[in-house]
Amino acid sequence: xxxxxxxxxxxxEELVCVRIAAAQMQPCWEDPKAGLEKAEECIxxxxxxxxxxxxxxEQFATGxxxxxxxxxxxxDGEIITALQGFARKYAIAILGSVRxxxxxxxxxxxxxxxxxxxxxxxxxxxxxxxPAGEDKWYNPGDALGIxxxxxxxxxxxxxxxxxxxxxxxxxxxxxxxxLVVPSSWPAERQDHFLLLSKTRAVExxxxxxxxxxxxxxxxxxxxxxxxxxxPLGECIASADDREMILLADLFPEPVADLRKKFPxxxxxxxxxYGCLGMAERNDTV
Length: 285
Description:
- By secondary structure, the chain is α/β, with parallel strands linked by helices.
- The protein has one domain (3-284): Carbon-nitrogen hydrolase (Nitrilase/N-carbamoyl-D-aminoacid amidohydrolase), CATH 3.60.110.
- Helices cover 29% and strands 27% of the residues.
- The protein has helices at residues 32-48, 78-90, 134-137, 165-173, 190-204, 253-261, 270-284, and strands at 3-7, 18-24, 53-55, 93-100, 107-113, 119-124, 146-149, 152-156, 178-183, 207-212, 214-216, 221-223, 227-229, 235-238, 244-250.
- The strands form three sheets. Strands 1-15-2-3-4-5-6 form a seven-stranded mixed sheet.
- The mean pLDDT is 93.
């Protein structure tokens, strides 16, 4: 079911801060029980390979369907509770997502769980995919999702969020050094997924772990392409269109060193941007 692809990036094991696992998988359509069984096998393998954190794609247990209101549940429902149990059983942190109960409409929510089963953070997808009507069936989130793991400060974005640089700028300003992006990104726009993942890593000088589904669902066709990108925009682990687990060893030093030596954020002209926009509007009046 799962193939392993390892790229350590460095050979000095003493300096390894966190080994992450990206679980590229085909979702079990509207079948959380089967999806969770599949996820547990991925978790077992990742833990055996020394990973301390595993990331699953968007709506991995059911498949992404903007019109579906099946299997909507609270964060103490079947899916997240099962992940909490797996986290304790295999002593590994996990990120998964769920159709979360919310009033008046559900939210597309990703949840980070530590290796004791405690919830570290949750993030409801802020930018809903309006071309497919997700904004009509779901409520957007309105807060960042940030947590810490070893020496990494980790942020969460979901799929379509990847197109909105403003969100990543907020995460960078909050000190995030690794941004995880669980996704259901279709094959038709696969080039955008790869390009934007690298662009965000370079633009905001952080690691990006973009984890996609693969296979065909009633909603669309997907072809994986999950990847882990370093702050220089270099791909240190990548997947093809098969189900597989990517393993990547991440180090905090490259982020801190790059941000110190190449201080892009400090050179922004936030004092001027608003004025420039206002001047343009005045010129057209």
